[in-house]
Amino acid sequence: MTALTLSTAGAATLRADALVVGVAKGAGSKPGDLVLAPGAEAVDKAFGGKLAAVLATLGASGAEGELTKVPAPEGLKAPVVLAAGLGKAPEKDGAYDAETLRRAAGAAARSLAGSKKAGFALPIGSVEDAEAVAEGALLGAYAFTAYQAGENKLAPKDAKPAGAKQALAEVAVLGAKPRDKAFKAAAERAIALAEEINRARDLVNTPPNDLYPESFAAVAAAAGKEHGIKVQVLDEKALVKGGYGGILGVGQGAERGPRLVKLAYTHPKAEKTLALVGKGITYDSGGISLKPAGHNETMKCDMAGAAAVFATVVSAARLGLRVNVTGWLALAENMPSGSATRPGDVLRMYSGKTVEVLNTDAEGRLVMADALTRASEENPDAIVDVATLTGAMVLALGNRTFGIMSNDDAFRTSIHEIAEEVGEASWPMPLPADLRKGMDSSTADIANMGERMGGGLVAGLFLKEFVGEGIAWAHLDIAGPAFHEGAPYGYTPKGGTGSAVRTLVKLAERTAAGDLG
Fold first, then answer.
1. Is 291 part of the annotated catalytic residue set?
2. According to the model, what pLDDT value does residue 295 have?
3. Element (H, E) at 159
4. Which one of 89, 186, 257, 445 is most buried, counting C-beta atoms within 10 A?
């Protein structure tokens, strides 16, 4: 993990491999009309006041995501200056928003992979600005190299990673106040949150031959021991004894059995309890309803919801939040075999309801249903489930936005506002009552499939059936943003992203503060 420091050094005197400054589009209409962001004053002075002109000559426009490197002149201890685009400059005396700073810091940190230390002299006018820069840089510096030659324990000791550099080793945030309690707390929060998001990314990126229900449960148990979280793991025998027909039905076709993991963080002064349920399909072949060619290669990511829940509970423990947070990881492999659930089979769920399985590739809702019922038994103040649940949600909202459904409009609105605040794109979605009829079954209480059109909403309606009476519940379908297959951008890497963790942690913080009623 990249180290973070709040530095008292000036940009001109900091010894580092690179200095990061911000540059924005000015108010003028000319392509070269650039504005240096606050924080770059000492660097600009070393350039004789001509840094903006130099950057413009090199083609910099100040656009978001744009990076321009220039050799540093005499007067700076760092050999390189990296200008990160911030988009349009704010109005006079205005501040750059947190997400802009987060993305710029992330892009810069990623581009400096292989460096030992970088100073970030981006505009910091508040504690929130400092936290955004720190968080963005730590998330942007992420690199998953565990399976490359230099990291592989079975490889020769002198082997070097093939094609990837190690992450930037240290981020020094300039302009913050390291002795100020608020700045120190912001830095500690950024470190804890980034470390757990990056651990969630690692889990999503880990190949399914190494990450399966039992090994995922072991990771959770180890983290629980480290951070004072109570962890309970239900193995196959316990699941059979408890009647968890949904989880067992999905996992029965795999050689590696399913698990239900409960993580409980409690605070002695907590007044509210938040339950989180995560879909943990460590590999999804589609089961007997096999996925077509070209759709299997990234299905190791189908446990991203469970990874997000796991990361949130650990973050809450590390931050000492005054709220009880319980996480439920519904873990299974969905594989085709002679013992796999068939289309047409009927499963008796933990709730006692029966489900006719019309499509074994609609398996996530089956494991989630059991976990939702179990979570409801503890009567929490609210339940939020997180899942890479439907391709229909990706068709509706694209690859960067997750959908939010709920049985409580005010709760859905609160989560949407929180997600937007922390920089996670989301959109509130309805649960139309007329779509429920499509899941009627002549054989069982309900079928696991309904109308094709509005499939993401149908899945939400199915989950709603298993939520306890009177409990506020929300469903986050993160199928789009959980796994990024394109080129990295901002602080978002290729592969696992850690989607929804920041939203859930902020929700826990708001719940602890009593801001959600």
1. yes
2. 87
3. none
4. 186
